[in-house]
Amino acid sequence: MLNERERTRGGRTALRPRLVAAGWDYLVIAAWLTALAGVFVPLSRAGAGFGGVGALGTDLLITALSVLPLGAYLVGREAGRRQATWGKRRAGLVVALAGGGRPGAARIVARALVKLLPWQCAHMAVSRLVREPESAVAMPLLVAAYTLAGASVVLVLTRRDRAALHDLVTATRVVPAP
Questions:
Q1: Please, is 18 exposed, middle or buried when counting C-beta atoms within 10 Å of its C-beta (0-12, 13-18, 19+)?
Q2: Concatenated DSSP letters for 88-140?
Q3: What gap in Å lies between CA 72 and CA 8, rounded to an integer?
Q4: Would you say residue 51 has pLDDT above 90?
Q5: Which of 130, 24, 144, 39 is closest to 73 using CA atoms?
Q6: DSSP code of 51?
Q7: Burial annotation 60-88 (CB, 10 A radius, 16+ → b, else e)
Q8: Cα–Cα distance list, 66 to 29, 31, 42, 52, 81 (Å)
Q9: Residue 94: beta bridge partners?
Q10: What confidence category does residue 49 fall into, taking pLDDT thresholds of 50, 70 and 90?
Q11: Taking a C-beta distance cutoff of 8 angstroms, is the pair 156, 100 a contact?
Q12: Rounded to whole angstroms, how far apart are CA atoms 125 and 113?
């Protein structure tokens, strides 16, 4: 838990708790991706590749195995009783409506979709570049991924309330836990 001095500085929401929360949550994400690699790398080395599924099949597989489970984690935790992922709880933060109060499940789902959109775009771009390095679709997807992720980072660093893109789109904020 962070003390009151770490939560706000000069009327601005402190950046440190948000970064601490993100760091803890990235450990959860890294653990999931490591588990996936632990299953799929040996399968691939054994010749059980997924080369014949095509671009759409690859997109669906990546979405089903990585993006949807992480989205379920975000939604389940942030829409739950504690209004926070494991990282946010450890940093003493919760997700709330911009005006205060508890966001509904639909708003939390929308928040997760906006938050994970850059990841999905990046996955789709990489899968296309691996299959077809001259893909006309890969570069716009990469530009979208970097633009969305970059916009979120810039917003968190420059806004007084530290709201990211997904917070602005859904009128939510990450605030100190009551």
A1: buried
A2: HHHHTEEEEETTSSPPPHHHHHHHHHHHHHHHHHHHHHHHHHHH-TT-TTHHH
A3: 30
A4: no
A5: 24
A6: G
A7: eebbeebbebbbebbbebbbeeebbbebb
A8: 9, 11, 18, 20, 24
A9: 175
A10: low
A11: no
A12: 18
What is the distance between the alpha carbons of residues 15 and 70, in angstroms, rounded to a whole number?
23
Which stretch of 3-7, 29-33, 80-84, 89-93 has the lowest confidence by average pLDDT?
3-7
**Which residues have a Cβ under 8 Å from the Cβ of 151 and sit 6 or more positions away?**
165
Tokens of 163: 């709201």
Backbone conformation region of residue 54, classed left if phi is above 0, alpha if psi is from -120 to 50, else beta: left
The whole-model pTM stands at 0.85
Q: For tokens 């997924």, what's the residue? A: 50
Work out the angle at residue 158's Cα, subtended by the Cα atoms of residues 173 and 146, and round it to the nearest 5 degrees: 85
Q: Token pair for residue 94?
A: 């919760």
- The DSSP code for 12 is E
